[in-house]
Fold these 3 entries.
Entry 1:
Amino acid sequence: MKISHTILALSFALGIPAAAQTPVDSGLAAVIAQIRAIDNHAHPLLPPHAGGPADSDYDALPLVAIPPFPLPIGLTSDNPRYALARRALYGDSSKRAQVMVQQGDGWPTWALDQMGTDIMLANRVAVGPGLLPPRFRWVAFVDPLLFPLNTALERQATPDVRSLYPHEARLLVRYLAALHVKTVPPTLDRYLSTVVSPTLDRMKREGAVAIKYEVAYLRGLDFGNPSRSAAAAVYARYAEGGTPTRAEYKTLEDFLFREIDRQAGLRGLVVHIHSADIAGGFYNVTGSQPLLLESVFNDSTLRGTKFVLLHGGWPHTRQTLSMLGKPNVYADFSMMDQMLSPAVLAGVLREWLGEYPDKVLFGTDAFADHNEDPVGWVETGWVAAKTARQALAIALTGMMNDGELSRDRAVAIARMVLRTNAATLYGFPTE
């Protein structure tokens, strides 16, 4: 096996500073650099138009709404990789706006080409010009469907959720309006038949390939399995007024979570679940552990539904590894490739790929700090894409060196992670 330490070749293949290199197989790195990737998770923004409103649909729960909190250094402007991204993308930061204007509605597609990405899954409330198929595929938010009742007591849990629950309430009103429904119906059965099912149908009809939960920002992922009658009793008690206790609301939420997931599976919609220890000063880290979802993944009535643990459950990545043994569970490493060094991410990937290489998905979590910076998601996406390819090359080179796999198998796994696993999961072209 030929291992090259040629700094120039490696820098070209991975598009990163030569000084940051860990020796990898140069041929493998060159192959990885050329794979047209499918990004499992991102928050791209619409191309801005002069005089038009700022894009507010890039996330259902914009974290600018919560009190300030410390970020890992890799997600701050102090990360030198962002300066590298700006130079690579624009040559000069002052040219960011110029490039965006030149590209017009084609600017998001131009951005994907700079990242080496073929298809990006856009997590948004709604999509629009510039973010449409075939290069962009929609992932719709379904958290509002969990909260049809008054959330006054839920909002009191922490200062973070106090500002987030109103966003869910407004979005539920928007979903109801799309169905020409003014208020939630008086019974759970009617809520399911006139709101939940039609909303999922609308999302599917409008192009969604998956649904997304950000619920870990609001409560733990410890979803129980209450009876339909217990959930119906809570719903009926408060549908027309009053405020459920937190225990009562949890019963309803737990039932709705599983019911929504069952219905998603019947429609061929993959279920994405945020699972990582960020962000917010009051974020419930314990409540976002992947193992809390085991009873959901073991539910025989949900085996027809495919789940993806977003962000790999960081830092509980070995819990994620254990969940990958479930036949319908996958994981991506979005955001990890922004936040972690290539070497640290490579260690996680090596553990995952050593056991379940067909369950691991590339993702960036490309995002902007706020809706007034429509360019920022391009830079974060570029950094994540470059880091991911470098980490993948490091992990696979180590596995080759240790005799765990051949070069041909390493190339095949690289293609699986960057493209074919996602293509198979969503029914996209594999080439």
Entry 2:
Amino acid sequence: MKLNTLNDKLASVQTRFKSKKSRFNSFGKYNFRSAEDILEAIKPFLLELGVSVRIDEEYIHTDMLPLLKSTAIISDGDNAIHATSIVGIDLNQKGMNVPQQFGSASSYAKKYALGNLFLIDDTADSDATNTHGKAPKAKNTLTSEKDPAYTKAVDYIKKGGKLEAIKAKYNISKEIETKLTTL
């Protein structure tokens, strides 16, 4: 299949992308992937598909908490698609000086902007699995075409996403499953 549009190229990356969780957090006892790991894993696609990836960051001053906005961008030279994440900078984080606090927030924001762009599912990461002493949340239910999640699911499938990934995140009705499989 010839990939003509940037959407086609992004969908190709999203469906073929693999990045191992090669880092280990000894405090939390879990493996994770960093923004650097994601960027390293994306490099083989760049020349193959004729695209580039970059990350822009913007500091946002607020009275309550400083924020860092990170935007991951894929471009083919003519068009660009971007995804954003915003994180707070914890200036009271113990054991870190201010540059480390900003660096930590920057790494986190980049990782999640890239994850949003490339549809990296981190449900096994500690951020997703740490319940902080609360009962785990049940999967969302997707039973209606009126649900905003249905539109996202349709877009995801049209870009080459797999129904299994949607079913892992949502309890879907047979009617919705049938509609998604016939797209």
Entry 3:
Amino acid sequence: MELETVTNPPRLRRVLTIWDLVFYGIVLIQPIAPVGIFGIAQKISYGHVSTAVLAAMVAMALTATSYGRMAAVYPSAGSAYTYVSRGLNRYVGSLIGWAMVLDYLLIPIINVIYPALTFKRLFPAVPYAAWVVLVVGVIIFLNLRNVRFTARANEALLAVVCVVVAAFFFTAVRYLFHFQGWGGLISFEPFYSPKTFDFGALRTATSLAALTYIGFDGVTTLAEEVENPKRSVPVATVLVCLICGVLSTLEVYLGTRVWPNYNTFPNLETAFIDVCLRVGGVVLFQAMAVVLIVACFGSGLAGVAGAARLLYGMGRDNLLPRKFFARLDPKHNVPSLNALAIGVLTLIGALLISYERAAELLNFGAFLAFMGVNLTCIRQFCLRPEAGRSRNFFRDLFVPGLAFVFCFGIWWSLPRPAKWAGGVWFLAGIAYAAVRTRGFRSTPPQMDFADL
């Protein structure tokens, strides 16, 4: 028995199917993903949020193909950072890792701002800042005690979300058909209205609507446990984007038909729950608000935990001061100082940055990572194919090349404040890399995403 244990060490089993991956991806993205950006993107696009969500879906579906193919080659933690570092260039990979650090820091901020705004709508007498402090306090308190949302809790939450979304679909269709008939229910105007269509505005709205799909790449982290990963992972990542894209488009389409005048929303950032109030009354309004709050709490918990552990890994590997960032709380075995530091940053960010600006800055880093993965896919499969494998122009060059063009267009369309802030962050990253590599004369330090 001892000899068998030595010769056959434990390893991950390939038992997951495509649909296991798809379900996991939908849990990560959440069917209510477009709710937060609905009002803002509707105003930015002059009423064409449905088109923006569809355009973002195309870019994400194409990019998902690149992620899936790279995950089959490098089935390890780190996602875009790993793919670009190993498949393209270590220095470029370090900048992609720096972009991922930015995203890890922004995710908790976004998931504090939205529940605080929703609480403010439910209890308008209480100041927004008080809700921010409460939400941050609860999230940090739970993180310091090593509390996690388990997979079953996520599945239960997904079930509740699906029920609420289904209730919205039913009540919205009933509302439109009752007051306007088939003409109110079926219309091409949310996708193209000649009176208000503006291509530049649509590109800007698409750069925000892409937030709907952030998280699809989490599917690739399960590549080592999937049956036939070279086929299953690319197919599953694309299916996740398509399914979430169709659901999201239906949600914002119905929202646009129910409330076509985006200039009359009481609050742009919580506009979708006003749509729910119009079609389903107070019950649906409160149900959607509660679901949003709970979902954001879950994402906020995971976001703070991930960011704290990323800083811990960087401290452990001497990428940050080890004495502070690599310290674990002896009682709860968590990086408590890091969680507190993330809590302070989240509190400051949630009080100073709007939901819109935080989302745009998140997409700044995310789309740089997407572009990096698409370029890496071209080099891996078209410019440097493995021995015995012939090139396929369509799969190896055209698809990732088109994905890169889409992602670059969306990234370039981000508002100027996001590009300025992101540019400052990247300059800091380049300076940091220059110091760590003695003027780029040595290999850049590696970040470890394996424990997140």
